[in-house]
């Protein structure tokens, strides 16, 4: 009974209808209303700026769209249950947030699964996936070989490391990550390669799990770790558990005098992380909507819609944190950076 109640809440639809501007065909003096396309959105931790960008972009177009929004509440079990609802409902397109959700919905490209087990025939556009190839979602970015395409939000790791190097005295980077999340492991390996190429030391602090009840203990241990290791900066990867607890992580790291560089914008804007070179979630959501529109209304096949990242990135600096740390980014960053305050 408990499972049924949780399942019911997870499947409580929030449906947004867009009437939009409807094109008319006058060849026979009869107006033809375009059919409403249903987009089924599966979220991991509620609506983010990525979803706002996606929906705003879709609704600003003339074609009529219906959104069905399901939030898994950070539960893999709920994603699996939602997947069954998608297979029964058969929407026109599926939107998925993040690596975990997308992997559970669609499975790996290399795996052999039937259409009634994973979503294999309905077009799926993923968003905010750090490493689509590494996660096994697609093997070819330019011409996806399955029903899955989408957008990645992560700035290339070598570019991020170069951004950190613009700060004075960066010789050792500390990274905290969830050792049981493939998405986090892929980022750490990419960070290791980029640091090696740049001649920077990387020290790793793996979390045993994503237990919210133990988050304070984990971060207190991390503060001791970066102090003992003499880290110059903390790298906060794109990880849902760490982003959700970013305020605590930033407080302990900054309390130890070590600035936090964030791979995503949320911790800088909302949790006081020092800075980052990022793809704005809203813009990435708009880019995902562009791909969805190609599939829904332009007659494109998934193989014709490449997996891509944005071409332009943004420096964001939290000036309150810079003042508290008494450490200001150089002019080369500040000339183009967006400055935010807590």
Biggest sheet: strands side by side, in what order? Answer: 1-3-2-4-5-6-12
State the share of residues found in helices, binned by percent. Answer: 25-40%
Order of helices and strands: HEEHEHEHEEHEHEHEHHEHEHEEHHE
Number of strands: 14
According to CATH, the homologous superfamily of the largest domain is: Response regulator
Low-confidence segments: 1-31
Structural class, from secondary structure content?
Answer: alpha/beta
Radius of gyration: 21 Å
The first-level CATH class of the largest domain is given as Alpha Beta
| Mean pLDDT value | 90
Number of domains: 2
CATH architecture of the largest domain: 3-Layer(aba) Sandwich
The rounded distance between the terminal residues' Cα atoms is: 43 Å
Keywords: Signal
Organism: Oceanospirillum linum
Protein name: ABC transporter substrate-binding protein
InterPro entries: ABC_transpt-TYRBP-like, Peripla_BP_I
């Amino acid at each position: 009974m408990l499972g049924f109640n949780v399942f019911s809440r997870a499947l409580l639809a929030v449906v947004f209808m867009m009437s939009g501007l409807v094109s008319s065909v006058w060849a026979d003096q009869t107006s033809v209303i375009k059919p409403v396309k249903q987009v089924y959105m599966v979220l991991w931790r509620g609506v983010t700026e990525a979803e706002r960008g996606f929906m705003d972009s879709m609704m600003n177009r003339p074609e009529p769209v219906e959104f069905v929004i399901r939030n898994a509440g950070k539960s893999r079990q709920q994603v699996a249950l939602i997947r069954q609802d998608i297979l029964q409902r058969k929407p026109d397109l599926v939107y998925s947030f993040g690596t975990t959700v997308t992997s559970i919905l669609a499975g790996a490209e290399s795996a052999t699964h039937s259409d009634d087990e994973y979503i294999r025939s309905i077009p799926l556009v993923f968003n905010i996936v750090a490493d689509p190839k590494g996660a096994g979602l697609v093997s070819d970015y330019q011409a996806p070989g399955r029903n899955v395409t989408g957008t990645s939000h992560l700035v290339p790791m070598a570019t991020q490391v170069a951004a950190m190097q613009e700060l004075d005295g960066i010789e050792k980077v500390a990274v905290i990550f969830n050792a049981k999340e493939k998405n986090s492991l892929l980022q750490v390996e990419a960070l290791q390669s980029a640091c090696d190429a740049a001649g920077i030391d990387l020290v790793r602090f793996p979390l045993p799990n994503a237990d919210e009840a133990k988050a304070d203990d984990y971060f207190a241990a991390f503060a001791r770790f970066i102090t003992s290791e003499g880290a110059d900066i903390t790298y906060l990867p794109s990880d849902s558990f760490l982003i959700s607890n970013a305020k605590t992580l930033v407080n302990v790291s900054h309390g130890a005098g070590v600035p936090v560089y964030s791979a995503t914008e949320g911790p800088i804007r909302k949790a006081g992380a020092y800075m980052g070179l990022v793809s704005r979630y809203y813009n990435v959501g708009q880019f995902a909507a562009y791909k969805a529109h190609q599939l829904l209304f332009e007659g494109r096949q998934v193989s014709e819609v490449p997996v891509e990242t944005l071409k332009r990135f943004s420096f964001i600096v939290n000036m309150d944190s810079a003042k508290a740390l008494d450490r200001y980014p150089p002019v080369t960053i500040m000339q183009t950076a967006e400055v935010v305050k807590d």
